[in-house]
UniProtKB/TrEMBL annotation:
Annotated organism of origin: Aurantiacibacter atlanticus
Binding site for FMN: 57-59, 86, 107, 135, 231, 258, 309-310
Gene Ontology molecular function: FMN binding; L-lactate dehydrogenase (NAD+) activity
Pfam families, sorted: FMN_dh
Cofactor requirements of the protein: FMN
Name of this chain's protein: FMN hydroxy acid dehydrogenase domain-containing protein
Keyword set, alphabetical order: Flavoprotein, FMN, Oxidoreductase
Record's keyword annotation contains Phosphoprotein: no
Residues holding glyoxylate: 4, 109, 144, 255
Lineage: Bacteria, Pseudomonadati, Pseudomonadota, Alphaproteobacteria, Sphingomonadales
Active site: 255
Length: 363
């Protein structure tokens, strides 16, 4: 399970780059500045958020704990930030939508016939989801070697993987005592003879159209009239195309380093993407966010907000919904502290001039 949470694709070069990109930027703090009142709150889609953060869509959270998606939603609601629920989540979107105070967004994978994505989009609308996030870069799965090491040719866990699972009885009881999780939001689309956990996962993966294109985005835009984000963008030309197709926001990122190996990180292209997009769309980044200082760097370089997946999943695995809230609280407190260290009082005071790349340090 740890490899599923932490692993990337191929040599994990993109996963590694996502962290190194943040490490390459150094602050040039101001001094003798008024730091008495520091504020990291923002507006996300016109509504107040405690910090510029949304919980990234992550699938198959049910292997970490039962009702994990509801716990993530509860933690996000407590912290005052949006939760983006994945198509491949294990709790029904209607049950997640019932979490009090939640800002509920829906992440869409396109697979199978058009009737599937249309039904998912309509359900998200009926459930009151605030925004739709189309993931565009996962129609072909990355080469996840850690996953291949742990499975047989048919996709089932091999003996070493089963042996390792048996060494964690508390996890087995807490998570699998009532069986393996199911992909609750799409299971009705799966043929009845393929609805077991592994068979359904394989079937859904096989139904991912390799021909997903900009025309598909246009049809989704036409059907969904609320805010629409395109997620998985790492090419500047695609930022421009997304704007032309009427999206409300672009999320730069490489799927947490789990898709293309040796790709750039979102932070690498963020400043140029901001120049291209201007104020026409919301611009978010995903990948590599582990500390509050990462969020400040992203904001300074042009991001309106960031997505984090792993940081809050660590909290989930430790203490459920309370752990998710605590992870977000830590990110927020780190941001507030670092603002003081930088000599600025709020996020609007951040700018690229406050940071310098290591390879351009002033002499």
């Amino acid at each position: 399970m740890l490899e599923y949470l932490e692993g990337g694709a191929g040599q994990e070069a993109t996963l590694d780059r996502e962290r190194k990109a943040f490490a390459e930027w150094r602050a040039m703090p101001f001094t003798l500045s008024d730091e008495a009142c520091r504020d990291v709150s923002v507006k996300i889609l016109g509504r107040s958020a405690s910090l510029p953060l949304a919980l990234a869509p992550t699938g198959l959270n049910g292997i970490f704990m039962r009702n994990a998606d509801i716990a993530l939603a509860q933690g996000a609601a407590e912290a005052g930030v949006p939760f983006i629920q994945s198509t491949m989540s294990n709790d029904r979107m209607e049950d997640v939508a019932a979490v009090p105070g939640l800002r509920h967004w829906w992440q869409l994978y396109v697979f199978g016939g058009e009737e599937i994505w249309q039904e998912l989009v309509d359900r998200a609308d009926r459930a009151g989801c605030e925004a739709l996030v189309l993931t565009s870069n996962a129609q072909i799965f990355g080469q996840r070697e850690w996953d291949e090491r742990n499975r047989t040719a048919s996709g089932f866990p091999n003996l070493p993987a089963l042996t390792d699972a048996a060494r964690h009885p508390r996890w087995l009881v807490r998570t699998l005592s009532r069986g393996l999780p199911e992909f609750s939001n799409v299971i009705d689309f799966v043929p009845k003879d393929k609805r077991s956990f592994f068979d359904s996962a394989n079937w859904i993966r096989e139904q991912m159209p390799k021909s997903l294109a900009w025309d598909d985005l246009a049809r989704i835009r036409e059907r969904w009239r609320k805010p629409l984000f395109l997620k998985g963008v790492l090419n500047l030309k695609d930022v421009s195309r997304a704007i032309e197709h009427g999206v409300d926001g672009v999320i730069l990122g490489g799927h947490g380093g789990r898709q293309a190996d040796w790709a750039v990180s979102a932070l690498d292209i963020l400043p140029r993407a901001r120049e291209l997009s201007g104020d026409d769309i919301a611009l978010y980044i995903s990948g590599g966010i582990r500390r509050g200082s990462d969020i400040l760097k992203a904001r300074a370089l042009g991001a309106d907000a960031v997505l984090t997946g792993r940081a809050t999943l660590y909290g989930l695995c430790a203490f459920g919904a309370a752990g998710v809230s605590r992870a977000i609280e830590l990110l927020q407190s780190e941001m507030v502290n670092e603002l003081g260290q930088y000599g600025v009082s709020n996020l609007d005071a951040l700018s690229p001039d406050l940071f310098v790349r290591e390879d351009r340090l002033p002499l």
